[in-house]
Known about the structure:
Elements: E1 7-11, H1 18-32, E2 39-43, H2 49-56, E3 61-65, H3 82-87, E4 92-95, H4 98-104, H5 108-120, E5 124-129, H6 133-137, H7 141-152, E6 165-168, H8 182-200, H9 202-205, E7 209-212, H10 218-225, E8 232-235, H11 242-255
Parallel strand pairs: 1-2, 1-8, 2-3, 3-4, 4-5, 5-6, 6-7
Amino acid sequence: MSIRTPLIAGNWKMNKTATEATDLVKAIAAAVGTESAVQIVLCPPFTALSAVCAAAEGTHLAVGAQNMHDKTHGAFTGEVSAAMLRDLHVTHVILGHSERRAIFGEDDAFINRKVNAALAASLKPILCVGELLAEREAGTTNAVVKRQVELGLAGVPAGKAEQVIIAYEPVWAIGTGKTATPAMAQEVHAFIRSLLVTQFGAETAGRVRILYGGSMKPDNADALLAEHDIDGGLIGGASLEAKSFVDLVQSAAKSLTR
């Protein structure tokens, strides 16, 4: 049995007003708000963070942000700092999502500064890594993932490494309806864990959770979560509706008995 607690995180992206977000949290909490065997993290847009934190109070639901800046304060219009997130009782933050990399031009060095800033502020970073379709077809998946993991975690103290969560998101499987087979996903997850062994040692690597972020849905979750190195999911579309998200949490709970 794994020593790692399964984690299901919902990345709502640019969806849900504060009112809509509150309704969704209440529906999720009513179904799995007392679930303690699986860690559940909800990541709404910035404008809904305060409302979601309030709605999640008294439940086992944790709240994460979708991004943050690496600086503590300053002239960075439109950005938020780690301290601002902590002040709302946010505990997690998604960093390096493929959309931030592709649309907003974030590179490994910038993402790495965010990872270290998050850890310094006692936030748990969810570091996203993954290859494009062209990179997979060119056979460079491992090279791309290796670069993103090693550069993304540069300077992270060994004592804080297990606070980091890695999310493997094959970019070609996000929002396309395509999904890596469980065996394909497991192969990359195992490779990521081997990189963590090299960087932080086997004991720490064995405690870091690696999530699958490539269109996990209720109809494929059981098979994916049965794999040894897949410790949960970073969920996009299926996190926007309570029933589908709750189904994924229940799949993660079932994985503990296999």
